[in-house]
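Quick one, probably user error.
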């Protein structure tokens, strides 16, 4: 081999060694690592949620000494959710599969070079010994020119599975937001309930003190004081239970936020009395129709079905003929042969027709399996559509009911507060007994709980409706 050829081989080897390092460098992230540009832009730039104009923050730091808003809670949950990381990895895996499908349209090229020292000596002196020191070089290229749609179907299936993976990731975002919204308002509800129970205990304590004073003056019997004592004990028990519910709700919220369980979380003190948002006023049929078109879980199931249908074509084409074009170049040797004693070059060009004749019925069962997978994906799609519809129907009903209950709960609370004030004044003047005071006190506690529950249900249900419809974005929680 002359010097020019030696330099050429050396340069090819150097490029081959450098390619992996260039592909991994930060300066050229997609030059060699993703030549077909199959990786979606959202992997690099991030996702924009429905209705938002900015992308989801990649990382969030929160000073937990300040109250945690719902928008901050969602950002933390989306940054730390482990299920979403798995869904994001699925997107990258499917992008790699799509790249492999694109690679099937390009030729496969291989080359190898060696320095060979070949000394042959014969025991029979009649044969002349040979001594060959040569460079050897082999190169081959193979390109599939034609098949019965297998490559095209495989490529289309990979593309649809990538779309399905992206939709599944969007669905995981909606699910994560739904979980954190529910847990956030559970904390708000249990915290407000704890405050109500604490206030109820204070009222019961005041009632007991008043009863003791009146008993000391001889205006009431011992029985009234005992009733007031029982009411205070019941109020204290209810407050302790409310404290336990509040602590449990905080632990669940910390789990969904992805922060350590011992993190001290503080939330805004009170639920918004001004409804805190507007419910999108659309008929239920419109919500369902939009979900059929754009809900990410339905899109994912639909694309998976289409991909499985294309896999049937792939399975069929595997048992049909294919045409390949191949070329080879050999210098000084062929693979597996000894070095030629003199310099030699050989070039071959071949068009081959591959006809599968019998594979032990493997292709038959592959085809049956692919067809069965289509049936399964059809069932999964129908089940997904039903689950989405059920979620929307329930969330729609909850939001309408919660909106109607807001005004009624406000009136109930106002009436109960007035009733307690009247009964306490009457009791102080001796115009009412302890039973009336305790009854109005219990009615006020129930009214507070109803008001808290109605506020929480309103705030949560309108956001859960957007989540169930797959249209939840950070814009919807900026008021909290």
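Nope, works fine. Designed sequence:
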């Amino acid at each position: 081999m002359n010097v020019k050829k030696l330099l050429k081989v050396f340069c090819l080897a150097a490029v081959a060694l450098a390619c992996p390092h260039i592909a991994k460098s930060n300066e050229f992230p997609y030059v060699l690592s993703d030549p077909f540009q199959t990786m979606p832009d959202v992997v690099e730039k991030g996702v924009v949620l429905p209705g938002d104009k900015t992308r989801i923050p990649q990382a969030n730091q929160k000073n937990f000494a300040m109250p945690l808003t719902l928008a901050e809670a969602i950002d933390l949950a989306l940054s730390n959710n482990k299920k979403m990381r798995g869904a994001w990895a699925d997107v990258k895996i499917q992008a790699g599969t799509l790249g492999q499908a694109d690679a099937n349209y390009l030729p496969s090229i291989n080359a190898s070079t060696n320095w060979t020292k070949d000394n042959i000596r014969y025991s029979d002196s009649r044969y002349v010994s040979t001594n060959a020191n040569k460079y050897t070089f082999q190169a081959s290229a193979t390109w599939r020119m034609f098949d019965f749609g297998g490559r095209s179907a495989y490529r289309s299936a990979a593309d649809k599975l990538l779309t399905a993976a992206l939709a599944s990731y969007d669905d995981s975002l909606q699910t994560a937001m739904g979980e954190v919204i529910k847990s956030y308002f559970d904390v708000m509800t249990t915290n407000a309930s704890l405050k109500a129970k604490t206030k109820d205990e204070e009222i019961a304590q005041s009632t007991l003190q008043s009863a003791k004073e009146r008993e000391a003056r001889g205006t009431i019997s011992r029985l009234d004081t005992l009733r007031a004592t029982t009411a205070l004990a019941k109020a204290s028990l209810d407050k302790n239970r409310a404290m336990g519910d509040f602590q449990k709700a905080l632990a669940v919220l910390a789990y969904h936020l992805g922060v350590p369980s011992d993190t001290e979380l503080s939330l805004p003190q009170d639920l918004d009395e001004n409804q805190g948002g507007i419910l999108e006023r659309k008929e239920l049929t419109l919500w369902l129709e939009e979900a059929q078109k754009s809900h990410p879980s339905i899109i994912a199931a639909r694309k998976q079905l289409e991909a499985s249908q294309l896999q049937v074509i792939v399975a069929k084409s595997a048992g049909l003929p294919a045409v390949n074009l191949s070329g080879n170049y050999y210098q000084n040797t062929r693979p597996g042969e000894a070095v030629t004693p003199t310099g030699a070059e050989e070039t071959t060009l071949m068009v081959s027709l591959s006809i599968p004749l019998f594979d032990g019925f493997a292709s038959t069962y592959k085809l049956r399996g692919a067809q069965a997978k289509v049936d399964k994906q059809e069932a999964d799609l129908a089940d997904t559509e039903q689950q989405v519809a059920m979620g929307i129907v329930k969330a729609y009903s909850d939001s309408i009911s919660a909106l109607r209950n807001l005004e009624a709960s406000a009136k109930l609370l106002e009436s109960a507060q007035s009733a307690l004030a009247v009964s306490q004044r009457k009791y102080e003047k001796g115009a009412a007994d302890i039973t009336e005071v305790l009854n109005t006190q219990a009615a006020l506690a129930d009214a507070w709980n109803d008001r808290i529950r109605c506020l929480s249900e309103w705030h949560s249900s309108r956001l859960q409706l957007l989540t169930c419809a797959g249209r939840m974005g950070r814009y919807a929680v900026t008021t909290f």
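Strands lie at 108-120, 130-146, 322-331, 345-354.
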